[in-house]
Amino acid sequence: MSETPSKEDELAGTEQPFVQHLMELRDRLVKAMIAIAIAAAILFFFPGPGALYDFLAAPLVAHLPKGATLIATSVISPFMVPLKILLMSAFLLALPFVLWQIWAFVAPGLYSHEKKLVLPLVISSTLLFFVGVAFCYYLVFGQVFAFIQSFAPKSITAAPDIEAYLSFVLSMFLAFGMAFEVPIAVVVLARMGIVSVQKLREFRGYFIVLAFVVAAVVTPPDVVSQLSLAVPMCLLYEVGIWAAQIFIKHTQAPEEPGESASASLSLIHI
Length: 270
Description:
By secondary structure, the protein is an all-alpha fold. It has 10 helices and no strands.
C-alpha cells in the first residue's frame, strides 16, 4: 500500500533574493518614517506642542496649590520638552500604520497557522499597551498626585520642573504599558510550550508576590500607585491563563494527512 503524499508546502516558490528583502525593508521603513513625519506636522499645527504638554501636565496642575505652575530650570527646556512630546505623540499616532508596514514585510514568510498566531498578538499587545497608558493617565495620576500633594508641608510651594515631570510621566507610561502586556507574555509562554497552563495556575501565588515587588520597584514610594499597578497585573494574569487555553486550541499547526492516518491506525490497534 503506497504512503499518502505529504501536503505541499504553501510557501514553496515564494523565496526572494536577500537583496530584494533589503530593498523591501527599506521601502517599508521609509513609508513608516513618512507617516510619522505627517503625524508630527499635523500635531504641530493642531493642537500644537504647547497644548500637548498642557494636556500631559493637566493631572498634576489640577492638584498643585492655587496659582502654582510648573517651572523650567533649563534655558532650552521650554523648547525641547514640548518638541519631545510632539515627536512621541506623532509616533503613537502613526503606530498602527508602522505596525501594518512591519506586518506586510513579515507576513509573506509565515504559514497560515503562524499568521493566526502572530497577527492577533500584535494587535492585542498594541491595544493593551494603549489601555495601560490611558489607565495610568486618567485613573492613576489623579490619585497619585493628590496623595503626594497631601504630604507637602504648607511652608513649601510645589513647583515641579517640566523636564523632570516629563521623565516621570514617560517612566510611568512605560511601566503601566508593559504591565498590561502580562496576558500576551502568558499566552506566548503557553503557546510555545515553555510552560503549561496547569503550571501557570500553580504559579499564581508566586506571581502575586512578583507583581507587588515589581510595583514597589517601578512606581513612586506610595501605596496608591503600587496598588494601581499590582492589582491590574494580577487580574491580567488570570485573563492570560484563560486566553492561553483558547489561543492554543485555535492556532495549532494543521496535521499532515499521513500523520493523521497513522494516528488513526494506532488507535485502531490499541
